[in-house]
Every structure is written in structure tokens, then in C-alpha cells.
Design a protein that fits this description.
It is built from 4 helices and 3 strands, in the order αααββαβ. It is α+β, with helices and mostly antiparallel strands. The longest helix has 45 residues.
């Protein structure tokens, strides 16, 4: 008698309730996981742009000649971008000599178009309305002043 009551308690017929709940939850879970990957990629890209701009400005500021400072700063920024695997046609590096508080400074600007994987692969070409962007421009600018 007790075993029949236990079977009724633990082995109820759900008639597909679990399958329906799974079908409702799994798309949301997949979106969260893919969104986490996209956020990690964009943070990595922003970090790479920041490090390359800072490294380029640092390399350019130690040069005594203004003409070579721009060349050295651009080359150093490109080299660091290569270390992050970000140096391609989507990335633009500019360096210039500017005046900051009556002293020469090197300003390095790094710009890159960030392409989302998920929205480009699955949500592009779905008509004129787009809920999610397919790419966004990222820009970082670092200015370092010559001391002394």
C-alpha cells in the first residue's frame, strides 16, 4: 500500500510539461551565453585599443625629433595592435604632435569598427528594421606630454 502511494508521489505523469518548459527557457539561456561572449570580445577589443594607443604615445614621446615621433608612435601602436590580433583594415592609427600646457605632446588615436558575430551571422539581411547593431565604431585617444 505504501509503495503505491510513493509511486504516485514520485512518478507523476507530466504530459510533456518538462519539454515545454525547456523549449521556453533554452532560447533565453542561449541569448545570455552568446551575449556574454560578445561583451567579453568587445571589452578585449577596447583594452587592446587602449594599450596600443598608450604604447604608441609612450614610444613617440621619447623621440627628440617631431617628424620621427609621429612615425615611431604609429609603428609602435600598430605593433601592439598586432599582439592583440587587431591590426587589419578595420583599424586606423593616427599620431600627431600637439601643444598641451605650452609643451609638446604626442596624441595617438586608434579607431576600429567592432563587428558583432551573433548579429552579423543571424540577424542581418532580415529587412530594414534592425533591433541589434551589426557593428559599432570604437575610438581611443591618448595624449602624452614631454616633461622637462
Amino acid at each position: 500500500m505504501a509503495s503505491k502511494e510513493l509511486k504516485k508521489i514520485f512518478f507523476k505523469r507530466d504530459s510533456g510539461q518538462t519539454l515545454v518548459e525547456f523549449a521556453l527557457v533554452i532560447p533565453i539561456f542561449i541569448l545570455i551565453v552568446l551575449g556574454t561572449f560578445e561583451v567579453a570580445r568587445i571589452l578585449f577589443t577596447i583594452h587592446g585599443l587602449d594599450v596600443s594607443a598608450r604604447g604608441g604615445a609612450r614610444a613617440g614621446i621619447v623621440e627628440l625629433d617631431d617628424a620621427t615621433a609621429v612615425t615611431v608612435a604609429t609603428a609602435a601602436a600598430r605593433e601592439i595592435l598586432g599582439d592583440f590580433n587587431l591590426d587589419n583594415a578595420d583599424t586606423a592609427v593616427t599620431a600627431e604632435i600637439v601643444q598641451v600646457q605650452n609643451a609638446d605632446a604626442v596624441r595617438v588615436t586608434v579607431t576600429r569598427t567592432f563587428n558583432f558575430i551573433f548579429t552579423n551571422a543571424y540577424l542581418s539581411d532580415r529587412g530594414s528594421f534592425q533591433l541589434f547593431p551589426t557593428n559599432i565604431p570604437l575610438t581611443t585617444r591618448v595624449t602624452m606630454r614631454k616633461e622637462g
